[in-house]
């Protein structure tokens, strides 16, 4: 009986270690889920990969070269997506993924091009910070840049 118990403990320990291995593909899947919900207008899908108090920021250069950092709530983004007109298609095309992971923290950098109804709008990069929670890794912070020039 004792060897069986030891075997069980070893299996449980190995399983718990294996479950803690968060990979670059896992991080990419979280971002893909976020954008799948974004494109479908499915805010529930997006919310499933976000912390409830996720910080959302945008950096850009406004008129006369004024550098701006705007902070908004995730709720504002989710409301904009939920209320997007049916005749308006938003298409954020991710150009690549750069993923860095250190234990309970991950960072995903995704340059993008954004189109509205098939027409180019702007480009930039998203920087996602993911953190491990009791419910798995979630998006904790999202900051993006936006520009219309030097996109190619």
Describe the structure.
The chain has 152 residues and is an alpha+beta fold. The protein has one domain (23-145): Nuclear Transport Factor 2, Chain: A. It contains four helices and seven strands. Strands 1, 2, 3, 4, 5, 6 and 7 form a seven-stranded mixed sheet that branches. A hairpin with a 2-residue loop joins strand 4 and strand 5.
List keywords for this structure.
single chain, 4 helices, 152 residues, 43% strand, Nuclear Transport Factor 2, Chain: A, globular, alpha+beta, seven-stranded mixed sheet
Counting H and I runs of at least 4 residues, what is the number of helices?
4
Sheet/helix structural class: alpha+beta
Which regions have little confidence, pLDDT < 50, spanning 5+ residues? Answer: 15-19
Distance between the termini: 66 Å
What is the class in the CATH system?
Answer: Alpha Beta
Mean pLDDT, as a whole number?
A: 90
> Any idea how many domains?
1
**CATH structural fold name:** Nuclear Transport Factor 2, Chain: A
List the topology elements.
Layout: H1 2-19, H2 24-40, H3 43-47, E1 50-61, E2 67-73, H4 74-82, E3 90-94, E4 98-102, E5 105-116, E6 119-133, E7 136-145
Parallel strand pairs: 1-7
Antiparallel strand pairs: 1-2, 3-5, 4-5, 5-6, 6-7
Short description:
By secondary structure, this protein is an alpha+beta fold. It has four helices and seven strands, in the order H-H-H-E-E-H-E-E-E-E-E.
């Amino acid at each position: 009986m004792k060897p069986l118990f030891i075997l069980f403990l070893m299996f449980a320990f190995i399983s718990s270690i294996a479950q803690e291995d968060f990979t670059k593909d896992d991080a990419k899947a979280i971002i893909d889920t976020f954008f799948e919900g974004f494109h479908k207008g499915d805010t529930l899908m997006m919310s499933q990969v976000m912390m409830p108090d996720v910080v959302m920021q945008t950096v850009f250069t406004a008129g006369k070269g004024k550098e701006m950092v705007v902070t908004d709530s995730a709720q504002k983004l989710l409301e904009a997506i939920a209320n997007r007109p049916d005749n308006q298609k938003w298409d954020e095309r991710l150009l690549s993924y750069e993923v860095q992971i250190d234990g309970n923290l991950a960072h995903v950098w995704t340059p993008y091009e954004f189109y509205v109804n098939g027409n180019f709008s702007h480009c930039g990069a998203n920087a996602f910070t993911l953190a491990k929670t009791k419910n798995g890794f979630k998006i904790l912070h999202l900051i993006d840049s936006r520009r219309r020039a030097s996109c190619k």
